[in-house]
Amino acid sequence: MQEINMEELRNLPKDSYELIDIRDEGLVIYGMIPGARHIPVETIEEGSAHELEAIDKNKKLVFYCQIGRKSRELEDLECMADRDIYSLEGGYLGYIRTALSDDSDNKEKQHKAEESIRKKFHKQLFTPFAKACKTYKLIEEGDRIAVCISGGKDSMLMAKLFQEIQRHRQCNFELTFLVMDPGYNKENRALIESNAKALGIPVTIFESDIFDAVDTIEKSPCYICARMRRGYLYSKAKALGCNKIALGHHYDDVIETILMGMLHGAQIQTMMPKLHSTNFEGMELIRPLYLVRESDICAWRDYNDLHFLQCACHFTDTCTTCHEDGTTSSKRLETKKLIAELKKNNPFIESNIFKSVENVNLDTVIAYKKDGERHHFLDEY
Fold it and tell me: Which parts of the chain are beta strand (E)?
C-alpha cells in the first residue's frame, strides 16, 4: 500500500479523497483527525463495512490507525480491490506531531486555554475542581503538591486547573509538575514536552526503566506497570520535598470503577478522592478531578484544538488506557457503553452510581471488610 503524509494530503482537493479512521472506539473517543469518518478495522476485515461501498469509487481512500502500521495491512483485503488506497504515514500520532511542529502560536494557545477555563468552561471544569478540593480537603495550607502528568488530556487539564486555583491565592501551597518517562519513544516524549510548552506548564521530567522492566511479564503487565509508576512517582515527589501527588482520575473513572468492581470483581468499592500512602510515610494521593465529567474535559480539549498523548505503551498499538485496578481497556469501554445505555431510560443513573457508595447501609450488608478484617452480619445478630 502506498503511504501519504499530512503535507501531501493537505495539498489534495478535499473532494478527491475520504479519510478513514480504523482504530477501536477506545482510541477514537480521545480524538480524531477533523473530517475523518470512523470505520473500525474489524468491520473492514469482516467485509461488512457498507460505508466503504457507498464512497465514490473515484475517490482515494486514506486509512489511518494509531501509528501507521495496521493501516498498511489493509491492501490485501478483497474489499480493497480496484480501489485507490493509501495509508497515512505515522497514523494519528503522526498527525498530532505535525500539528504541534509549529510552536509559533504557543502564547496565543496558552491564553485561549486559560481563558476558556475562566469563562466558557468555568462551570463545567473549574467549579467542580474547586468543589472537590474543598469537599475532600485535597489542598491544605503549606502543601507541596506533585501534579503528575502522563501526557493525556486529563492530567494536562488538571495542571492548568491547579495553576488557576493557585492564582486565586486563597491557600498557600506549592506545585511541581512532574512527568515520568517510563521508556517512551522520542516522538511521544517530544509530544508531551511540546504540549507542556504550548500550555505554559513548567514540567520536571525524570526517567525510569519501567517499560523495559515489565516487557517480559505476560500476566497483567498494565496493572504491574501502573503500580510501579505510582511507586516511582511517590519516590520522586518525596525526594523533591512534596507531601502529595495528584492524579488525573475523573468522575467517569469513579463510576466505571464502582460498576466494574461489582460486575467483574464481585466487590463494592470505589476510587477514593484521597489516600494515605502505605509505603511512603507522610505522603498522600489526591484526585482533584473527582467531580469533573470526561465529556467536559473532551469539550475543553476540542475547543482549544489540543491533541494529547493517550497511551504510549509499547506493548500494543491499540492499548487505550493503563488502569491501576487491573481492568482491561475493553472492560472499561464495555462499562462505559453500559452506563450510556442505562442512561437512556434513567438520566440519573450516573449520579446514582456515584452516590451509592456514599449511602452504604451496613445494617443491610451481609459482610464487609474494615482494615483488612472481614466482618459478617451474624457476628452481631
Answer: 2-4, 17-21, 37-38, 60-64, 85-88, 144-148, 174-181, 203-207, 244-246, 274-276, 284-286, 367-370, 373-376
Q: Do the domain assignments include residue 10?
A: yes
Three-state DSSP class for 358? coil
Q: Which of 99, 134, 155 is the last residue of a domain?
A: 99
Taking residues 285-299, what's their average pLDDT? Answer: 97
- Asked if residue 266 lies in contact with residue 366, where contact means CB atoms within 8 angstroms, the answer is no
Q: Are residues 123 and 67 in the same domain?
A: no
- Edge to edge, the sheet with strand 244-246 lists 203-207, 174-181, 144-148, 244-246, 284-286, 274-276
Q: Over the stretch 154-196, which tens digit does the pLDDT of each residue have?
A: 999 999 999 999 999 889 999 999 999 988 877 788 888 989 9
Task: Please name the residues in contact with 109: beta carbons below 8 A apart, sequence gap of 6 or more.
Answer: 198, 199, 304, 306
Mean pLDDT of 344-373: 95
Write down the residue that cell numbers 514536552 correspond to.
193
Which helix (H) or strand (E) element contains residue 192? Answer: helix 186-199
Q: What SS3 state is found at 274? A: strand
% of the chain with per-residue pLDDT over 90: 59
C-beta of residue 206 within 8 angstroms of C-beta of residue 236:
yes
**Do 261 and 288 reside in the same domain of the chain?**
yes
C-alpha cell at 161: 486547573
What letter does residue 309 receive in the DSSP assignment? -
Q: Would you say 57 and 31 are in contact if contact means Cβ atoms under 8 Å apart?
A: no
Closest CA to 380 of 372, 2, 365: 365
Structural domain harbouring 151: 106-334
Per this entry, what is the length of the chain? 381
Q: Please report, for the domain that includes residue 66, its CATH number.
A: 3.40.250.10
**CA separation for the pair 35, 344 (Å, rounded):** 28
Show contacts of 340-344: CB within 8 Å, 24+ apart.
Answer: none
- Asked whether residue 345 is domain-assigned, the answer is no
Set of cell numbers at residue 380: 452481631
Summarize pLDDT for 185-232 with one digit per residue, the tens: 777 888 889 899 999 999 999 998 888 777 777 776 777 888 888 999
> Is there a single domain that holds both residue 48 and residue 111?
no
Q: CA–CA distance from 313 to each of 1, 42, 50, 164 (Å)?
A: 26, 22, 33, 31
Q: Which of 344, 319, 342, 318 is nearest to 256 (CA)?
A: 342
Is residue 203 domain-shared with residue 303, that is, in the same domain?
Answer: yes
